[in-house]
Write a structure and sequence with these properties.
2 copies of one chain form a homodimer.
Chain A lengths: L2 H11 L3 E5 L16 H13 L5 E4 L1 H5 L2 H18 L4 E8 L3 H14 L4 E4 L5 H8 L5 E7 L5 H4 L3 E2 L12 E2 H9 L8 E5 L7 H7 L5 E3 L9 H8 L6 E5 L1 H4 L7 H21 L1
Parallel strand pairs in A: 1-2, 1-10, 2-3, 3-4, 4-5, 5-8, 8-9, 9-10
Antiparallel strand pairs in A: 6-7
Chain lengths: 281, 281
């Protein structure tokens, strides 16, 4: 999917909601456990109930891998179901991958070709040659961690780093996540980059927009993790919206009863309506 | 496996060789492609030919995921084959995972419980709460990226960071990878940590050993990537050896002909003999 098609979907649906599919078998209605593929069937029910309110789905690979081969089959069925029934939906493999070049190429092949996701999340620690293999794929998107929504974000991401390493001149010092954003803009096919920026740090969006004014930002942390939608939009939105706001637990676990899909839709609708109001204001 | 058991194996085999299993179907002898599970059969042949010379095997998850469900089945069969036939071997899932706490818990479950690996590689960017869920597993080991063997290592890992963020006092500035090492020592169950340090940067081992004198270091980059075994040992070895030297392509692709297993063994033997000489010196 092209970025332009994603923007059109946002305008059409008046929504920039991404629904995170982090299925924990302990948290879904018990009747699913009797089915052959409970994870897929649960995802299918959530997708059926919310696809007109969301522009993106984000299966989290960990929650599939934890169930081994069966989990990987559920992931395959989930992405196929979305691609076949809702090709207008932007799909994100939340996988946080990244390795030396020849290995990153294999991950890109796994998620862009074998599974046919539109995008994948990656980690920046190993630098340019660990990310560029993902960027080489046309109309595929690589969503790199910049400033995450968890507590541990402050361990390394917000440390001041020198503008120029080893030189006495330290005036260029800035936080690591900013350096990550800046440096990534120099990489080949960097127009295929998007970034993860946690909603729990809304005050940072102003600074981030100075560095990447036009990029899409995938924003976790609204809902269960405590971030505010209106704050994120206030500081993070650009002319093309430029935001995908993720909600996982708040939507998919809105109820553990028979009405789980209805409740999931109600939660998604609440967020979509907030988004519609923001887009019109 | 406990660290003590790993040390005993190193002493017994006079080897601290780890064989990386990065199977690319384009690089293995053609007759494997006619078998039902070429990746597993190739790995099995490599393991059969080298298990007395190596103390560890490191399947690289990307090379399995690239083949989808079939690839995940090959991974399962490979780890089961090692665990059943060579329980004395230390197994490493080279997966470079890391995410918010509840997600990292799922990855830990996937690799430590479902697949029963002894260890997994993880990325540090998301900090403490992205790594601690892995550390909570007894007699399992979490191998965190510190200084990697690729060019991109210099993009962020070697940037100077301030000792104390936001304070005028900048005398504590040091490279990010050192800060990662230091900080990780304060995490819960940090005794379960090992670190990835690339062989291509042998001169860095002296500094690294000042911070983590007792930890095991997993060292890629000897062979195909150009690092020197003797240099790494000179600066990186501790009283318990404390090193696992990985070779992937140099061993498993020593030949593409019918003699591939023999040639792989010859390459592994060459390295083991160098290691034996170093251990006796």
């Amino acid at each position: 999917m092209t970025t332009q098609q994603l923007i059109e979907q946002i305008q059409l649906k008046k929504s920039f909601l991404c629904v995170g599919l982090d299925v924990d078998l302990n948290k879904i209605p018990a009747h699913f456990l009797e089915l052959e593929d409970p994870i897929f069937e649960f995802n299918k029910a959530i997708i059926d109930a919310t696809h007109d309110l969301a522009v993106a789905y984000k299966p989290n690979t960990a929650f599939f891998e934890a169930y081994g081969i069966k989990g990987w089959m559920s992931l395959q069925k989930t992405i196929n179901y979305i691609n076949e029934n809702h090709p207008e939906i932007f799909t994100i493999a939340d996988a946080k991958r990244g390795d030396i070049g020849n290995t990153s190429s294999m991950y890109a092949k796994a998620f862009f070709e074998d599974l046919n996701f539109d995008s994948i999340t990656v980690a920046p620690y190993m630098g340019k040659d660990s990310v560029e293999p993902f960027l080489a794929f046309e109309d595929k998107h690589t969503i790199m961690l910049a400033l995450t929504s968890n507590e541990g974000a402050f361990d390394f991401q917000t440390l001041d780093v020198d503008g120029t390493r080893g030189e006495a001149e330290r005036s260029g010092a800035k936080e690591l996540y900013k350096r990550v954003l800046e440096t990534s803009k120099t990489w080949k096919n960097s127009e295929n980059l998007m970034y993860v920026v946690g909603a729990t740090k809304a005050e940072y969006f102003t600074e981030i927009r100075k560095i990447v004014p036009d990029s899409f930002l995938l924003v976790p942390g609204v809902g269960a993790q405590g971030g505010s939608l209106s704050e994120v939009c206030k500081y993070g939105m650009n002319a093309n919206v430029g935001l995908l706001i993720n909600s996982s637990r708040g939507i998919i676990y809105a109820s553990k009863e028979a009405d789980f899909a209805e409740k999931a839709r109600a939660e998604a609708l609440k967020i979509q309506q907030e988004m519609e109001a923001i887009l019109q204001s």
